[in-house]
Design brief:
292 residues, alpha+beta, 3 domains, 5-stranded antiparallel beta sheet, 11 helices, 5 strands, rod-shaped
């Protein structure tokens, strides 16, 4: 079996025909995007649906050698792509991954449309497919449900691998089903209230934390002001203490110098009384200002 190469922007996607269906060569596709192939192979094998549809196909490569290629049907490509969280891959491949998630399936489907239409007759036409796609985007915008989640619900509801294989008889019901997703059910309303409650609790906690943080900063400022004032007062205390020590020392020196001679004086009592009056006149108030 030969490999068909389909141009996608500046890259090439390898496609194989197997059981009258187009299958996508997964390893080369992962390499195009920049994904780790071994990790994606394990992921496919962990998924019940993808594992059941994936297979090894013998094909002749460009070098003329026969190889077994791991592939999945085109109809399941979107499911695999949608399962890759773009926020968890390397930043340098996010733009490429987004491009594949957005356009790859449509490019491949349009390329193989004649073969698919031959295998699946009585399915919706191109105009109806566009109607489904437009409605899915509108429902996603109004309901907040990711568009891939809407496609998944549609596929599960009508047991199809892709919306292009929706039968004509199911088309009106599919339109009605998609429109119903915009109207929230009782469970959706309850879930929304629960989600709003959780958001409210978290938001209240954040606001309380911000409030406490503001109070903490205010108290720290007040404490630093108080410490500054204490330091100023302590400087005054130290200065007064220094002056006290100086005065005390001076008094001691004067006392020691005068007390002994005074005790040895031998004057009349009246002389001591007159001397006391003279001392009162000579005495001046002690001024500590400017002392050093």
């Amino acid at each position: 079996m030969n490999i068909t190469s389909v141009k996608f922007h500046d890259q090439t996607i390898q496609v194989l025909q197997h059981e009258d269906k187009p299958y996508i060569a997964m390893r080369s596709l992962c390499e195009n995007i920049g994904l780790d192939w071994e990790g994606q192979r394990q992921r496919i094998n962990r998924n019940k649906v993808l594992k059941a549809t994936a297979c090894m196909i013998k094909a002749v490569a460009e070098d003329g050698k026969s190889r077994e290629i791991f592939a999945i049907p085109l109809g399941y490509l979107n499911g695999w792509l949608a399962g890759i969280d773009i926020n968890r891959v390397k930043p340098e491949i996010r733009e490429t991954l987004y491009l594949y998630q957005l356009e790859c399936y449509d490019v491949l489907y349009n390329h193989f449309l004649p073969e698919v239409a031959a295998v699946y007759p009585n399915t919706i036409d191109i105009e109806q497919q566009h109607e489904i796609k437009s409605l899915v985007n509108e429902v996603s915008r109004k309901s907040g449900i990711h568009y891939q989640g809407i496609y998944t619900r549609l596929y599960e509801k009508f047991k199809i691998p892709r919306y292009q294989e929706l039968s004509l008889r199911d088309y009106p019901e599919a339109i009605e089903f998609l429109n119903s997703l915009v109207i929230p059910s009782g469970n959706d309303v309850k879930k929304r209230k629960e989600q709003a409650f959780v958001v409210g609790v978290i938001r209240a906690g954040i606001e309380k934390r911000d409030e406490a943080s503001g109070a903490y900063d205010l108290l720290v400022d007040q404490l630093m002001d108080a410490v500054g004032n204490v330091r100023k007062e302590m400087d005054k205390v130290y200065e007064i203490g220094r002056k006290i020590r100086y005065v005390n020392q001076s008094c001691g020196i004067v006392h020691d110098a005068m007390a002994e001679p005074y005790a040895r004086l031998n004057f009349d009592k009246s002389v001591y009384e007159e001397g006391q009056e003279v001392a009162k006149k000579l005495a001046k108030p002690l001024n500590l200002e400017g002392w050093s």
